[in-house]
Design a protein that fits this description.
Chain lengths: 399, 399, 399
Amino acid sequence: MDKRAIAALIDAHPPRTALDRAFYTDADIYERDISEIYLKSWLYAGHGSEIPAVGDWFLFELAGESVIIIRSSEDKIHALLNVCRHRGSKICLENRGRDRKLICRYHAWAYDLDGRLRGAAHMGEDFDKSGISLKNIHTEVLEGMIYVNFADQPAPFKPVRDALTECLRPYRLDAARVAHRQTYPINANWKLSVENYTECYHCVPSHPEYSRGHSLAKPEARSAKLMQEVMSRALTCGLSDKAVNRIYLDSEGFGADYAYERYPLWRGHITGSEDGQPVAPLMGDIKDYDGGTTDFQVGPVCFALAYCDYVVIYRFTPVSLHKSECDISWLVNGDAVEGEDFDKDRLVWLWDVTTAADKRIIEYNAEGVSSRYYEPGPLSEMEDYTWKYLSWYLQTIRP
Amino acid sequence: MDKRAIAALIDAHPPRTALDRAFYTDADIYERDISEIYLKSWLYAGHGSEIPAVGDWFLFELAGESVIIIRSSEDKIHALLNVCRHRGSKICLENRGRDRKLICRYHAWAYDLDGRLRGAAHMGEDFDKSGISLKNIHTEVLEGMIYVNFADQPAPFKPVRDALTECLRPYRLDAARVAHRQTYPINANWKLSVENYTECYHCVPSHPEYSRGHSLAKPEARSAKLMQEVMSRALTCGLSDKAVNRIYLDSEGFGADYAYERYPLWRGHITGSEDGQPVAPLMGDIKDYDGGTTDFQVGPVCFALAYCDYVVIYRFTPVSLHKSECDISWLVNGDAVEGEDFDKDRLVWLWDVTTAADKRIIEYNAEGVSSRYYEPGPLSEMEDYTWKYLSWYLQTIRP
Amino acid sequence: MDKRAIAALIDAHPPRTALDRAFYTDADIYERDISEIYLKSWLYAGHGSEIPAVGDWFLFELAGESVIIIRSSEDKIHALLNVCRHRGSKICLENRGRDRKLICRYHAWAYDLDGRLRGAAHMGEDFDKSGISLKNIHTEVLEGMIYVNFADQPAPFKPVRDALTECLRPYRLDAARVAHRQTYPINANWKLSVENYTECYHCVPSHPEYSRGHSLAKPEARSAKLMQEVMSRALTCGLSDKAVNRIYLDSEGFGADYAYERYPLWRGHITGSEDGQPVAPLMGDIKDYDGGTTDFQVGPVCFALAYCDYVVIYRFTPVSLHKSECDISWLVNGDAVEGEDFDKDRLVWLWDVTTAADKRIIEYNAEGVSSRYYEPGPLSEMEDYTWKYLSWYLQTIRP
């Protein structure tokens, strides 16, 4: 679809309505999605505890790009394009590793941990290594969480940090560790995966496990009284009762969205688990369970849920036009020991079963929207967040 | 390939010649095949006996479209697009089922059996359900066989019904049942699959099992005397000796082709089976075996063979540019009991072995026509029907 | 990418630099690769010993084309397009076979061993078989090696024959036989496979097994003295010390490149094997091991290594944009008996392990060059041959 046709399609889009078929099936629109959204937004790459030692690295891969997230010194993390500057070979081949130098296996060009070229044989006398380096992309670390941005000049991360640091501090995420991380492949355009995350209209029909404990699933049943109770307990427990929301068209800088909001669990539930009871030790400086939970978001496609005993971080990325991935990290206190302080199966149960269900419904959604007879329908009152996301999406990729 | 190039290719096509490579490999031509042929023609969906009770349904899927064939009341069958009117999710997920309402698993929008929206939560006070319904496509039932048409205004089905009802009546297909149904995936453009069905030039080299009993395979060996014998017996047995043929460019309305013709089996064969002997009870009102068999056709891509003891219905559909499907239903008397009145393996043997062979040769044909050096060759005297089909095809998709 | 954009990309290409991403990912460039290079160059099809008897054939397949290499008489080999002249079916379906006639399985059109149509039933009285034949492509046999060319008027093969016959004669390849032949699928554009073959810059990092014995891997360590020693022994052993090199932009005719060069193995190695010791009887008229080996090349994408005891022939072909194949034949003396005169595992070891490693590094190269951030880098002094190949490539496909 050429640029004019894309712009016309966007201009004709009715408000509060699902996206047209073309947004899920057109290869040119997909390329705009990558260049205008993914290569310009702050994206969650992983957690500092995953690369504790100098030389530790893991790969972050999306839409055909591969980035080496590496600790180059005790307090410095780099994000390096995983593409040799000689003939373009991929350099790091496994998912994670530890190296003193990054050496391309093809012709043995060798790079320092910060990406600078150190060794390249047979290049002749005139060859100047000093100007050659693996491409560095921007990184920021917020409470231990590593965010990266491919843009040459990304929107500043400072507003995100300023807004979220205090709210998140009680969790001491900087001292947390990843108890489990899993990637769920989804056979659907990435937007269907994000749309699914942005609304809880589907929670009651699709997620009985989640809906048992989370009041987001039934906002109409939530009383002001319950909210008030939880918020006052939150403060006693050392948690923040602040709510911030600068997302999508309201974000302070492109791709630098942030939000933080605490809300009640149903009575009898104090965390997100099969029985509503704790699955890990209280996190950080939190003193007790307040009966609530927090949603937070950094950038347009990375979300998180912070319970009193664990935090789960979601990231949605495209793989190709009809494939995407949902990457989930479960974080617990850095000193919590698996088997003693927590049982991994219990810890991951809720969001594993919920994501498996989401994968299924997203994939059936993908089958449906590819029909020539699919007509985008009206959004419900529980899809406000989805419409915020969609309006931003349409404006962002408009040529 | 743009429209001008397609038109030029068609205008240059020599008579009685196979199709050019582009018709099997070009994505734009494929899209025209779908929009101009499949979405405007009468297509065999299945048989009423497959959905005996109210609320019974099965799916008919082709070229990325999914249709729910459902019995909404004792005497009414609907064909509903399997795409939710909210955000486009697929609604019915299995191949067949029985439901009192059709409920989308994503957000629980609920539809009546005729497709009308009945339930949709959280849509606000102004929301008017009454104008919203799953898209209904046209359906017709002929002697129990369900035909559907995606067109807004399809060619009338009445001429088909008028021409075929009397001929088919002795078989009492309205009281028949599907003893076996099977889909054969074929890695080839759908046209190669249909071409294969339209000629018996390949029967002698490729189908010894069929050629043993069917005189179509060797028309030069068929005597007028044999024909006469069978036709006179046909009338005695209660079968029609009529022949009708309004297909392709001669059809009364677009996509509403029909044909019916009876012809002799070789002496010693009275049905289509491994030994030429019966594999099921005589169908309907037929009194005895006359030594003949009937070919009939409804629409451009759905064919059938009616033996005295069973009827086999063929449907060819595209899946994607290089994939198609052959769907076959074997029908017997409604009261015939498997294991007592017929043996399923014996019943399906001939057309299973023949279709497996066809799949093979069609796929090798697909490999050949994708060569840059393939030159379409001249058609034989035994490919008259193929040329009828191809001339109609070329005229139909010409932009 | 349209022709103008391709030409502009080529005109902007800096010297001695790797290719731009588009050359590995663009479908239009790929089609030019096929039409301008593969369908106009001399390509190694196989060896005469693989089809010893009249009627013996094997298939040569590349980029969707299939060619029957068949012995039509004791001294004549044909290369026939494997596409029936009727409706385009593939005719020969296995990899190799022996037939008295080539009969299409679809409608039984029958062809002589030289491709002339002999039988076609039901074609009517006016049908003239005499003008119809499977398309023959050009073939040449050089010392038993069969080369083919799809072009209508290929560059003459005579210069290749004139230059190489004498050098190759001592090996008596015309009396050799294929002890093993294997195809290695490579998930990469064909050019990455050929680039890999054209340089030994990667040998030390990637091929320790090869680098142990072959001085090409460390040219800087090779003394003039070693060269002189081997060359003088070569003549005593009955081998040629000639070197010829008319490749790529220096070739005498398009796609008719040739090269022959002998060079030393490291001391202690007299052939290409795990321990540097012989793995088969001396070939042809060679009297003794001289401590050297020969590289030779015919056409742009077919290479060979001639050791004193065996010859290994490489051919690189595209399968599709992102898939290629490396086909390798190991030739030994025609009278050498497996299990007695040679052990097949020892014979194939070096080039099997080396090609498996190449497959791996080529595929990682393919992953890297598909990055939007890949920048083609400078070539080393050990990539002169690669640059010769790339300059010719760019000039050849320039629209």
